[in-house]
Amino acid sequence: MQPRSDQRTGLAYGLAAYTMWGLLPLYWRLLDDASPSEILAHRMVWSLPVAVLLLAVLRRWSWWGPLLRQPRRLGLIVLCALVISVNWFLYIWAVNAGQVLEASLGYFINPLVSIAFGVLVLRERLRPLQWTAVGIGALAVIVMTVAYGRVPWIALALAFSFATYGLVKKGIKLDGIEGFSAETALQLLPALGFLVFLGLRGESSFTTGGVGQALLLSACGIATAVPLICFGASAVRLPLTTIGMMQYLAPTFQFVLGLTVFHEAMPPERWAGFALVWLALALLTWDALRTARRARTALAEAAARAGEAAAGAAQATRAPRAAAAAQHDGEQTAPPRPPGLMQ
After folding, report:
1. What SS3 state is found at 225?
2. What is the pLDDT of residues 11-38, one digit of tens each?
3. Chain centroid to CA 58: how far?
4. Of 101-105, 232-236, 295-299, which has the strongest mean pLDDT?
5. Which parts of the chain fold into alpha helices (H)?
6. What is the spatial distance between Cα 309 and Cα 319, in angstroms, rounded to a whole number?
7. How many Å apart are CA 281 and CA 109, to the nearest integer?
8. DSSP 8-class letter at 126
C-alpha cells in the first residue's frame, strides 16, 4: 500500500493534470486567429523539444535502440501518431467552432467506447453492469441523433479516435514520456513542412500575428507536455480505480466552460443525452469500486489463510523437533542404573 503522503501527492498531480486538460479550451480560444491546422502543427513541433528535454533530465535514452529494431512496434507508433493527430485536430477545431459541449460529450463517452473495444477487439468479458452502461450510452447517442436530426459526429469521432489511440498503445508497451517522444518525433517533419508552407504563402499567424501570438503558439508544447507529466506522476502513486474516476474531471470542466464561458446552447434534448451518459458513467464507477473492494477483500482473506497455513505448517514442523529434543534431554538426565542389571 502506498504511504498517505505519496497518495496525497498523486492526488495533487492527478487533479493538476485533469484540470489543465479541462481548461485547454480557454487556451485554444486565445489562438483563435490561427487556423486549427496551424495550431495543430505548432503543437506537434513544439512538443518535441519539451519531450527531448524531459528525456535528457531523466536520462532515458536506452529505449531508442531496441525500438528501431522492431518494425512492428514502429508501425504501431506511426498509427498512434496518426490517430492522436486526428484527435488533436478535431478537438481544436471543435473548440474554435463553438462546439465545446459536444467535444466534452466525446470524452464522457470515451470510457464506454473503450469498453466496447475491449469486447470486440480484445475479447474481454463484461460484467452485467458494464453491459448496462454501454447500452445506456448507445441510447444517449440515439436520443441526441433523433433530437438534433444529425449524428453527434464530433463527440463520436473524438471518443473513437482516443479509444483507438489507447488500444494501439497497449501493443507498444512504452512508458508515457517515451511514447510521447516517439510520436512527436514522427509528427515533427510533416508539421514543420506545413508551417514552412504557410510562411511562404504569407498565411502564418506565427510571423504575422505579433509577438504575443508567436509566444502563445510556441507554448503549445508546454501545454501538451505538462499535463502529461503530471498524469504520469499521478498514475504511479494512485490506484487505477482512483485514476478512472478522476478522468471525468476534464470533460466536466469542458462542459462547464461551454455553458458558462462560451454560452453554448443547451436545449432539453441535449440535457437528456448528457443525463443518460452520466447515468452510464455512474454505473461504471460504482461497478469498478465494488469490484475493487471485492478484490481487496478476497486478497486480504487469501493472505490471512496463507498466514494461518504457514503458521500451522511451522507448528507441525516444530512439534516433532520439540519431542525429539525432550526425549534426548530425558536420556541425558536419567539416573545411572546399578551395575549388574540388564539393560
Report:
1. helix
2. 898 899 999 999 999 999 999 889 999 9
3. 21
4. 101-105
5. 4-30, 36-58, 64-68, 71-96, 100-120, 128-148, 153-170, 176-200, 205-208, 210-218, 220-235, 240-246, 249-260, 268-333
6. 15
7. 8
8. P
Dmax over CA atoms of the chain, in Å, equals 125
Cα–Cα dist 23/104, whole Å? 11
For 11, 199, 220, 292, the CA distances from 24, given in Å and listed in that order, are: 20, 26, 10, 32
Helix axes 100-120, 128-148, angle to 10 degrees: 140
pTM: 0.82
Cell triple for 92: 481544436
C-alpha cell at 285: 464507477
Quick check: 47 and 278 in contact, CB under 8 A? no
Q: What are the C-alpha distances in Å from 303 to residues 300, 306, 309, 310, 322?
A: 5, 5, 10, 10, 28
117, exposed or middle or buried, with CB in 10 Å at 0-12, 13-18, 19+? middle
* Non-local CB neighbours of 40 within 8 Å, separated by 6+ positions: 85, 88, 89, 92, 191
